[in-house]
Amino acid sequence: MRYIDVENLTFYYDKEPVLENISYHVDSGEFVTLTGENGAAKSTLIKSTLGILHPKHGKVTLSPKNDRGEKLRLAYLPQQVASFNAGFPSSVREFVTSGRYPRRGWFKKLNAHDEEHVKTALKAVGMWDYRNHRIGELSGGQKQRIAIARMFASDPDLFILDEPTTGMDDVSSADFYQLMHHAAHTHGKSVLMVTHDPDEVKAFADRNIHLYKDQNGKFACFDLHTDREKVKVKEVTHA
């Protein structure tokens, strides 16, 4: 089932086109990465897809339903989400537990099922043993992991992640990629993840959408798994 469908999206900063005629899609049950050189407007594309930024032209469709016919639940993890200062008052467990409230309602008491989700999420990112620590006491990588745990606790159908492994070591990053692969392939979740290092995640992802600069200096978009050879042929033809 198609959860994201973007057609001919064009975005301007002031009067300068940044993205032009970008089309891509993400289906349920797949883990898709989004890559591109520095300045390739990857975050801009994500924000335009979510409606945080408003494109000049094009059509963006987010499915209102998941593949079970229920309301689609979406979780977005922006860059630098883990910039908590030392005075942040919550414990790790309290912070991650707050991810369950949108499902239950802010004034409804959480039940054992909710608590199990929180425990599972913290264990999945290796932070269960830190559950009673104050967030301000954690390292940058640990803060990033509990932000991810909070997102997992909300149990979304669609994950949209902007460089989520920033601050993590190689082992933690690999564990996270395996976790996202498992979420997509075992639980039918959909994952769209911006990454600056496609090589370290390619063993886990199903597809890689790449933003690249064309001969006119505009960023275009292609799926590396299906269109890469076409692009190479075109470049050889022009040579």
UniProtKB/TrEMBL annotation:
<dbReference type="InterPro" id="IPR003439">
    <property type="entry name" value="ABC_transporter-like_ATP-bd"/>
</dbReference>
<keyword id="KW-0067">ATP-binding</keyword>
<dbReference type="InterPro" id="IPR050153">
    <property type="entry name" value="Metal_Ion_Import_ABC"/>
</dbReference>
<dbReference type="Pfam" id="PF00005">
    <property type="entry name" value="ABC_tran"/>
</dbReference>
<dbReference type="InterPro" id="IPR027417">
    <property type="entry name" value="P-loop_NTPase"/>
</dbReference>
<feature type="domain" description="ABC transporter">
    <location>
        <begin position="4"/>
        <end position="238"/>
    </location>
</feature>
<dbReference type="GO" id="GO:0005524">
    <property type="term" value="F:ATP binding"/>
</dbReference>
<keyword id="KW-0813">Transport</keyword>
<keyword id="KW-0547">Nucleotide-binding</keyword>
<protein>
    <submittedName>
        <fullName>ATP-binding cassette domain-containing protein</fullName>
    </submittedName>
</protein>
<dbReference type="InterPro" id="IPR017871">
    <property type="entry name" value="ABC_transporter-like_CS"/>
</dbReference>
<dbReference type="InterPro" id="IPR003593">
    <property type="entry name" value="AAA+_ATPase"/>
</dbReference>
<dbReference type="GO" id="GO:0016887">
    <property type="term" value="F:ATP hydrolysis activity"/>
</dbReference>
